[in-house]
Design brief:
Blueprint (H helix, E strand, L loop, with lengths): L9 H10 L24 H4 L4 E9 L14 E12 L5 E11 L6 E5 L29 E5 L17 H27 L5 E7 L1 H11 L7 E5 L5 H16 L5 E3 L7 E3 L4 H15 L13 H7 L2 H4 L17 H12 L28 H19 L13 H7 L5 H5 L10 H4 L9 H6 L1 E7 L7 H14 L7 E6 L13 E2 L1 H11 L5 E5 L16 E5 L5 E3 L12 E3 L1
Parallel strand pairs: 4-5, 4-6, 6-7, 7-10, 10-11
Antiparallel strand pairs: 1-2, 2-3, 3-5, 8-9, 12-13, 13-14, 15-16
Helix pairs in contact: 1-3, 3-4, 5-9, 5-10, 10-11
Length: 570
C-alpha cells in the first residue's frame, strides 16, 4: 500500500443540543457503555427530527486490515441526510452524514471527524487521528460522526456547488453546526445516555472546520485538534493562483490540461531544482538547533539565516540546463515572489508569506510541495476561487480553468472574496473564516484547542497560522491555558515531507482535557513508509514537537540524533 497521510433544521437541532448536553462530565478511557437500542431502531420515524432522513442503519461486522488505521470493531453504521432541497442551480442538496456507533465497548464519548478538500464525501468516517497513526477513533471506542459538507461529490474535485449560496454556507460552517447536535441526539438515543466528552479532529479544510468548532460551536466540544487550518481559505486559494502565475512566468514553462497528477505546470522547476533549493536551505539551517541531523528544527532562525539570492547558485545567462546545479534569474524571481506571499500590484499582501524549509522536497500525492504547486494548484485554485470564493461566482471548469488562472487580476481578489449581494448574502470570507479568530470566550471557559502545522506545508502557510497564534496570545496572556500551537519542521500538508510527521496530537488533547495536563511538547516519530525520509535516518527517529514559540534544541553533550531524549524544548 502506498503511503498516504490521513488527511438542518437549525432551531430543532439547537433545542436538542440544549436538552442533550454534549460536553462536560468526566469519563475514564476504561469505562464502556452498553447500547440501549438496536441498530434497526434508528429510523427516520423514531428520531422525530424535522427534515431528517435515515437512509440506512446497518450492523457492520468487525474487520482488521494490514493498514490498522482502517480496522474497525463491530458497529452500527447510520447513513442519512438532513435539509434536502433544490438549489438555485437546480441541483439536489442535503447535508449528508455517516455516524458509526460501537455495538459494544463504547467509551461514552463523541468524536467528530473533520472534512477535507472541497468535501462531497465522508473523508475519514472511522475517525482519522492524523498522519502515521495506526488506529482510529472508532477502534478506540468513540461514537464517530462525519459529514459530506452539504453536497454530494464522489470525486471531491467538483466545485460547482459554490454556485448555490446555501451550499457555500453549509460547506463553510453550517454542516458542522447542523450535524453535531443531530449526531449527539442519535448517540444519546442509541445508548440511552448523552456523551460525557465531545472531541473534534481534522486537518486542512478539516482544520478550518476545527477553528469553526472552536469559535462558532465551542459549546459543543471539550477538545479540538485543528491541523494545518485553512481558516482564510479564499485568500489561500487566490494565493494558489498567484503562485501558478509566478511559475508560468518562467521561460519554457507551460500549463498542461489534465487531471491532478497528469496535468499541471511543466518546465518551471524540475525535481533537481527543488532538491537544490532544499539542500541550500538545509546547509544554512541544519545546525541552528545544535544538531546536524538533516532537519531545520529552528524554523524562526532559519528565516533569518537563509537568503535565496546569495545561498543558491545562479545560472549563467543563456547557459545550459542546470540539472540541479543552479537556478535561473527567472526561477529565483518566481520563488522569491511565491515565498514572499501573494500581492496585488500595489504590493499589498493578500494572504501570507511562507517559511523556507528543506521539507519542500516532499512530493507525496496531495501533500507534497511539488505536487501542489505544479500539479494541483493550476486546476483547484481557479475552480475553487471562481465557483466558491467569488461573489458573484464565475463558473470555472477544467475546460476554462487555465484561461481563468492566467487572466486573474490580483487587484480584484479582495472585492470578490469580501463581496456579497442579495443572493449571496454572506461573503466568502464570512462563511469560510471564524467570526472572531482572536477571542475564544466560550472555548476559554470549558475547552482546549491544539493546532499543528507543517513548516513545509505547500497549501496553507505555517506563517499564517503562527501570525494568528501570536495575535491570540497578544489578546489574552492566558491563551496557552486553552490553546497551543505546534509547528512540525519539514512536514508537508498534514503529513509527509522530510519530517517526523507522525504527531499524536489527539492523545495529547485527551490528556489535556481529562487530566488537565497541558502539552509542552508532543512526541513525533517517522511515519512508517514515508518515502520522503532519507535512508540515513533511523526508521525509529523521534523528536519532541514543542509548543510555540519553543523549538527542539540538542541537549549539551547529547550524541544520539535519532532519539527525542537528546533534545529539549527551549
Amino acid at each position: 500500500m502506498k503511503y498516504l497521510p490521513k488527511i438542518a433544521t437549525a432551531i430543532a437541532l439547537t433545542a436538542l443540543a440544549v436538552i442533550l448536553p454534549g460536553c462536560g462530565g468526566s469519563n475514564s478511557n476504561n469505562t464502556t457503555v452498553a447500547q440501549e437500542k438496536s441498530c434497526a431502531d434508528i429510523t427516520t420515524t423514531s428520531l422525530h427530527i424535522p427534515g431528517l432522513v435515515v437512509t440506512s442503519a446497518t450492523v457492520v461486522n468487525a474487520s482488521t486490515t494490514t493498514a490498522t488505521s482502517q480496522s474497525y470493531p463491530t458497529h452500527c453504521d447510520v447513513l442519512g441526510k438532513i435539509n434536502e432541497r433544490t438549489g438555485i442551480d437546480g441541483k439536489p442538496y442535503a447535508i449528508g452524514f455517516d455516524i458509526k456507533l460501537p455495538i459494544s465497548g463504547w467509551n461514552g464519548k463523541f468524536f467528530y471527524s473533520g472534512d477535507a478538500g472541497t468535501d462531497g464525501v465522508f473523508f475519514a468516517p472511522l475517525g482519522g487521528l492524523g498522519s502515521g497513526q495506526t488506529t482510529n477513533a472508532l477502534s478506540l471506542g468513540y461514537a464517530v460522526a462525519s459529514s459530506d459538507g452539504g453536497h454530494n461529490d464522489p470525486t471531491s474535485f467538483d466545485t460547482s456547488f459554490g454556485l448555490d449560496p446555501q451550499a457555500r454556507i453549509d460547506y463553510g460552517y453550517n454542516a458542522l453546526g447542523t450535524l453535531t447536535p443531530l449526531a449527539k441526539t442519535i448517540v444519546s438515543q442509541f445508548y440511552g445516555t448523552a456523551p460525557t466528552r465531545s472531541y473534534y479532529m481534522g486537518c486542512s479544510k478539516g482544520g478550518e472546520t476545527g477553528l469553526m468548532a472552536a469559535t462558532r460551536y465551542a459549546d459543543q466540544f471539550d477538545g479540538i485538534v485543528a491541523g494545518a487550518p485553512g481558516f482564510d481559505l479564499p485568500k489561500a486559494a487566490v494565493a494558489q493562483i498567484y503562485d501558478s502565475q509566478q511559475l508560468l512566468s518562467i521561460p519554457g514553462s507551460s500549463n498542461v490540461a489534465g487531471p491532478p497528477g497528469v496535468g499541471g505546470i511543466t518546465g518551471a522547476l524540475s525535481s533537481q531544482d527543488i532538491k537544490l533549493l532544499s539542500n541550500s536551505i538545509l546547509n544554512k539551517c541544519d545546525a541552528l538547533d545544535g544538531a546536524t541531523d538533516g532537519m531545520a528544527s529552528d524554523t524562526a532562525a532559519c528565516q533569518a539565516a537563509f537568503n535565496l539570492t546569495t545561498d543558491v547558485p545562479l545560472c549563467a545567462p543563456g547557459g545550459a540546463a542546470s540539472n540541479g546545479t543552479c537556478l535561473s534569474t527567472a526561477q529565483k524571481t518566481a520563488l522569491s515572489n511565491i515565498f514572499s506571499g501573494a500581492k496585488d500590484t500595489a504590493g499589498n499582501l493578500i494572504y501570507a508569506d511562507w517559511p523556507w524549509d528543506p521539507g519542500i522536497t516532499g512530493n507525496i500525492p496531495f501533500v507534497g510541495w511539488a505536487y501542489w504547486k505544479l500539479s494541483l494548484n493550476p486546476l483547484l485554485g481557479p475552480m475553487s476561487v471562481g465557483n466558491i470564493f467569488t461573489t458573484p461566482p464565475t463558473a470555472v471548469t477544467p475546460t476554462n480553468a487555465a484561461t481563468f488562472l492566467t487572466g486573474f487580476d490580483m487587484n480584484r481578489a479582495y472585492p470578490w472574496i469580501y463581496g456579497s449581494n442579495a443572493t449571496y448574502t454572506e461573503s466568502p470570507m464570512s462563511f469560510m473564516s471564524p467570526p472572531d479568530r482572536v477571542h475564544f470566550t466560550t472555548l476559554k471557559s470549558k475547552g482546549k484547542l491544539i493546532v499543528y502545522h507543517g513548516a513545509a506545508d505547500p497549501v496553507f502557510s505555517a506563517n499564517h497560522t503562527i501570525n494568528w497564534y501570536k495575535n491570540v496570545a497578544a489578546a489574552d496572556s492566558t491563551a496557552a491555558n486553552y490553546a497551543r500551537l505546534f509547528v512540525v519542521p519539514g512536514m508537508n500538508h498534514c503529513g509527509g515531507g522530510v519530517a517526523t510527521d507522525n504527531v499524536d496530537a489527539f492523545s495529547a488533547l485527551v490528556k489535556w482535557v481529562e487530566q488537565d495536563s497541558a502539552p509542552d511538547s508532543i512526541m513525533a516519530t517517522v511515519s512508517a513508509g514515508n518515502p520522503d525520509v532519507p535512508a540515513s535516518w533511523s526508521p525509529n527517529r523521534s523528536r519532541p514537537i514543542c509548543a510555540y514559540p519553543k523549538k527542539a534544541i540538542l541537549k549539551t553533550g547529547a550524541t544520539d540524533l535519532e532519539s527525542a531524549g537528546s533534545f529539549v524544548c527551549q
